[in-house]
Amino acid sequence: MKRRSYGRDAGLSLRMVLTGTLLGLLYVVFAVVLFQVLNVGLVPMIVIVVGIAFFQYFTSDKLALAASGAKIVERDQAPQLHDMIERLCAMADLPKPRVAIIDTDVPNAFATGRSPKHAAVAVTRGLWERLEPQEVEGVLAHELSHVANRDVLIMTVASFFAMLAGLLTRFGIYGGMFGGGRGRDNNAVPVWLIVLLVSVVTYFLSQILILAISRYREYAADRGSALITGAPEHLMSALQKISSEMFRIPQRDLRQVEGMNAFFIIPASVKGSVSQLFQTHPPLEKRLAALGEIAREMGRPVA
């Protein structure tokens, strides 16, 4: 089944454009305010912003792999995994991404990269050992759908700028602790306080915009997996198994990979008590219900 047989998700594409536009406007305002407050020259500010953007664009995949501890593996190191991905890529009409393995017992997977030609798919040792081959294929098809939909890049960029705002928030707090950045007179608002407030607001709005797309993109990737493999029940089984197995993993191991929650197929914080309002993924029950509906439309068995 070629990818063109099901095409891009129009709803996801619209959300990506809207989210990208709003994020761009948000960070223009963010940069202008800092430009005024910190009294940085226009040229240095442009150089810094453009430099960060280029750095993030061309290194997003490497940064994500490094952050997760994933290691690129060649065919002779993981022949079965390479075979699965090659077969799915042929079915989805996609170029083969780089293949990586994360040496952790946490069952999970994610995709990264700025485009289908510069992508990587990573799976954990725990996922490979715990799931059946057809379930692994369902997960891999889900991750390849993220690559095909190109939603990985906007999530990476959005997360990066949210992280930058978070760092500046800490800078503002430390500035206040050490009494730096005072105004010209005692009645002026301290520079550190302005930086802190602007960064906090930017970080909060960034998270809201990320949530606006992160949940929908999971539904789109689930649908893509079902259509690529023709067997949505395999992904349903995989999601259930990953979620249940996560409760057997020590909290210490989960904390080590929680930084990749927005990218994982199932967040490592599934055991936590995070409010549903701030979850990056839709509830498992809703994902299973959506896949079940697709399975019925395809005439496939649903447990």
Which labels suit this protein?
alpha+beta; four-stranded mixed beta sheet; 303 residues; 6% strand; 10 helices; disordered N terminus; single chain
Describe this entry's structure for a reader.
With 303 residues, this protein is α+β, with helices and mostly antiparallel strands. The protein has one domain. The protein is built from ten helices and four strands; from the N terminus they run ααβαβββααααααα. It has a four-stranded mixed β-sheet with strand order 1-2-4-3, with helices on both faces. α5 packs across α7, α5 crosses α8 and α6 packs antiparallel against α7. The longest helix is centred in the C-terminal third of the chain and has 39 residues. The radius of gyration is 21 Å and the shape is elongated. The two termini are 25 Å apart.
What is the tally of beta strands?
Answer: 4
The share of residues in helices is 55-70%
Uncertain regions spanning at least 5 consecutive residues:
1-5
Largest sheet: 4 strands, mixed
**What share of the residues does DSSP label as strand, in percent?**
5-15%
Overall shape: it is elongated
- Structural class computed from helices and strand pairing: alpha+beta
Which sequence of strands runs across the widest sheet?
Answer: 1-2-4-3
What oligomeric state best describes the polypeptide chains here?
single chain
Supply the number of helical segments.
10
Rg measurement, Å: 21 Å
Work out the count of structural domains. Answer: 1
Helix and strand succession? HHEHEEEHHHHHHH
Mean pLDDT, as a whole number? Answer: 82
- Give the termini distance in whole angstroms: 25 Å
